[in-house]
Amino acid sequence: MTASYPVTRPRRLRRTPALRSLVAQVAIRPAGLVLPLFVKEGIAEPQPVSSMPGVVQHTRDSLRKAAHEAVEAGVGGLILFGVPAVKDGRGSAADDPGGIVQVAIRDLAADVGDDTVLMADLCLDEYTDHGHCGLLTPAGEVDNDATLARYASIAVAQAEAGVHVVAPSGMMDGQVGAIRGALDAAGHGDVAICAYSAKYASACYGPFREAAECAPQFGDRASYQQDPAAARDGLREALLDVDEGADIVMIKPALPYLDVIAQVSAAAPVPVAAYQVSGEYSMVEAAAANGWLDRDRIIMETLTAISRAGADIILTYWATEVARRLR
Ligand code: PBG
After folding, report:
1. Which phi and psi (to 5°) does residue 50 adopt?
2. 278 CB under 6 A from ligand 1?
3. I need a surface site. Which of 155, 200, 216, 279 has the fewest CB within 10 A?
4. Residue pLDDT, tens place only, 30-57
């Protein structure tokens, strides 16, 4: 006699919280979370970022406090973005040993040192008066190869200040190879590179550009960041970066690009990071502030999805909060 009920019952494993957690295959690891932090030169008090409620531009002191709290909560790493007081055409503050990011790296290296992984974003847009990620030709185009020399010099400055990892985010061709060569030549063979490999020209960076004061003053970044519709480009960029010596490859933004995270994670022989960017953060905060979404649940659901797609490491502005919640 055939059974009058379905024989295969997936719901058996969903019946109690204990059953569900026994068979869960994805877990958010606090040690795999990285907290992005903004530090601004010449301010006396932390400045709120209006489009990112809960995020501030730090002073040197408030940065140290935020770093301590993150490490205390079990967050795995910190990534620093500097906002200099003075900008110019070549982004001189970016590789100045006395520049804000170098100073902040030294502070944190002395405070938290090897208790965390100190990373620095490596780019020019926060430091140039035109807001582009590279040097410009007289015609106003971003000059790929001239920019590589600047990135190499920034990498060495950040390494001398004491970072464990540099994270080039400018999307110039050949940037990982140029930086690896410069670090090795300067005796920093042990400093790792987390490459922003697949970085799409996304509307999700809007709030960040307020936080880092780096909106392009003309044009956009579409000639160097990837086209959201170029489906195969993400894997290609990640594999090129692995060839050039990337130790970690990153996909950015995260939630709208889960397919790319999955492709890269299936193919890359190195750890894969995903950056849950400012716009992803602000969309959730805005909806939650309106009472339209359950904030705590949606934060965990987005991180679970990013992790399920294959990210080993997640950069998120919620890192400290989530690490505390998981303790
Ligand atoms: C460029 C950089 C950007 C972000 C990280 N590094 C901005 C951009 O490409 O315009 C965005 C991060 C975020 O939106 O949270 N240095």
Report:
1. -65, -30
2. yes
3. 216
4. 999 999 999 999 999 999 999 999 999 9
Q: What is the pLDDT of residue 153?
A: 98
Question: How many A from CA of 82 to the centre of ligand 1?
Answer: 12
C-alpha of residue 52 to centroid of ligand 1, in Å: 14
Per-residue pLDDT tens digits for 161-174:
999 999 999 999 99
Please tell me the distance between residue 111's alpha carbon and the centre of ligand 1 in angstroms: 26
Among 35, 130, 223, 277, say which to mutate for ligand 1: greatest number of ligand atoms within 8 Å of CB: 277
* Nearest atom in ligand 1 to 199's CA: 9
In this structure, are strands 47-48 and 56-58 parallel, antiparallel, or unpaired? antiparallel
CATH superfamily of 27-326: Aldolase class I (3.20.20.70)
User: How confident is residue 7, by pLDDT bands cut at 50, 70 and 90?
Assistant: confident
Predicted TM-score of the model (pTM): 0.96
Identify any residues that bridge with 39 across adjacent strands, giving them in sequence order.
Answer: 58, 82
Residue 280 beta carbon below 6 angstroms from any ligand 1 atom = no
* 274 pocket-lining for ligand 1 (C-beta < 6 Å): no
Residue 252: active-site member: yes
* Domain definitions of the chain by residue range: 27-326
In the block, tokens 């990135």 appear at 151
* % of residues, the chain, pLDDT over 90: 97
**Token pair listed for 36:** 């992005």
pLDDT of residue 187: 98
